[in-house]
Amino acid sequence: MSNQLPVINLMGPTASGKTALACELYERGNFELISVDSALVYKDMDIGTAKPTKEEQALYPHHLIDIITPLEVYSAAQFVEDVCPLIDDMHERGKTPVLVGGTMLYFKALLEGLADNLPNADQNVRDAITEKAEQEGWQAVYDELVAVDPIAGQKFKVSDKQRIIRALEVYRITGEPITKLQAEQPKNQPYRYTFHNYALMPDRLELHKRIEQRLSKMWEIGFLNEVEGLIVKYDLNDNLPSMRSVGYRQALDFLLKSDLSLENKVEMENKALFATRQLAKRQYTWLRSLQEIHDFKTYVTIKQAKEDLRNFFG
């Protein structure tokens, strides 16, 4: 394949306006959309993920939405495995892929590749690690990691629960530290693509306002009812990756672990708002780290992005 095959990466924090911009590109007729979002992969998780509605998806089809149940696990490695054939198929049909979303780890995996000697996620191993944390505390789990992988211990804090789980998971499966395996394995980069990276990075105060508005709308249109339905349909627990999505964790705790009082409901909504703001903060950090390595065009406003992309793509 030619090494000039274009892939447009449209990144940004939650509520930054990425989807609207991607849909405008789609209307130009030569683009197809691929979701880069670790929450949109889950079926039946619609309101809390701000998933495009069925009507919107009919007008602007997105690949990699609604592909697994909330009981299943999806990884960055699986994303790369799924997205590359989609990109190739689009190129063969003369289309330009537009990858849109806020899961920066997936973008990083696509841009830089992943070590292919790391084992896939093992839910049983993860459950065992989480059970230890519940019984002995996260400090004990972190201490175990430091003992078997001191380099990872230096990189992570006790609060980096998901990273600690993954590092310990790799060690328990392979007997080798994840940092050693990552250092030994050359990365398998998708050299055949030419990436055009764009990022929407609104002013923080403006973004916080949009996040608050989005969450208010979610509560109004029935987010809690959605989570109640998920509890009925699936055997959910808060250790599932799907339930670590912002909003869902707080709603699940409220529905399963509280007396459902108005006071607790307000507390839950405030926690969800705080968690979403923290997510946006992490997304900004990810974006800045990616920008240190890769070429980017960054926009503060959607209007700037639309004008520039309109000029770029004609």
Automatic annotation (TrEMBL):
Chain positions of site Interaction with substrate tRNA: T103, R126
Keyword Magnesium: yes
Residues engaged in binding substrate: T14, A15, S16, G17, K18, T19
Protein family: Belongs to the IPP transferase family.
This protein's encoding gene: miaA
Assembly with partners or alone: Monomer.
Protein name: tRNA dimethylallyltransferase
Keywords: ATP-binding, Magnesium, Nucleotide-binding, Transferase, tRNA processing
EC number annotated for this UniProt entry: 2.5.1.75
Chain positions recorded as ATP binding sites: G12, P13, T14, A15, S16, G17, K18, T19
GO biological process annotation, one example: tRNA modification
Substrates-to-products reaction catalysed: adenosine(37) in tRNA + dimethylallyl diphosphate = N(6)-dimethylallyladenosine(37) in tRNA + diphosphate
Coiled-coil ranges (or none): none
GO MF, any single term: tRNA dimethylallyltransferase activity
Highest taxon of source: Bacteria
Interaction with substrate tRNA: annotated segments: 37-40, 162-166
First-level EC class: transferase
Functional note: Catalyzes the transfer of a dimethylallyl group onto the adenine at position 37 in tRNAs that read codons beginning with uridine, leading to the formation of N6-(dimethylallyl)adenosine (i(6)A).
Cofactor: Mg(2+)
Entries under HAMAP family matching the protein: IPP_trans
